[in-house]
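Following the same procedure, the fold was encoded as tokens, giving this record:
***
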Amino acid sequence: MDKKLIRESYKNYWLENGKRPVSIYAFCQQLEITEISFYDSYSSFDAVEKDLWLSYFQDTVEKLKEDEIYRNYSAQEKLLTFYFMWVQKLKENRSYILQQKDNYRIPGVHLDKLETFRTAFYDYIRELVKEGYTSNEIKERKFISDQYVHGFWMQALFVLRYWTKDDSKQFEMTDAAIEKAVNLSFQLISSNTLDSLVDFGKFMFTKK
């Protein structure tokens, strides 16, 4: 059974019924497939939902990596381009995502649906950070550099949440938010701004 077909059928069920199928058995009956065919691809509906989020990310990155212009971009330009294209991909699935938005509220306990997407995103960001070190866009800092990926993940969640609430024409406010967020993050990790904040924090701590 094609995993993409299962994902699309599951998404369509949500769109038509506003909830997940009652059971895997009932879902398979609707698709006219055996349960074995489903379990050959996924262990549960949660696994399908995780793979949907991962597919939005993977489809975006695969398309970007085919673009020669993108390959020649700086790390900051690559991240900007990723977000713009990722949001375009999300737009194709906006109705489903809006139905699911309680699953990724922050703070919350539902981020497990984004688990496999988060893992893949971390790998992508680590490569961008390495490129940033080489091009001197990003400053490598002892004890702090390993935390960059976590900061960028929070940034991705911010973009996602902002986009789900954006009602501006063609989501132009989301585009503006992406630019500001990415520019700020690279200013922090590429200049002395972060070092100054850390030094100030150390000073204040030692003076207590």
In short: Residues 45-65 form the longest helix (21 residues). The chain has eleven helices and no strands. The chain has two domains: 1-43, 44-207.
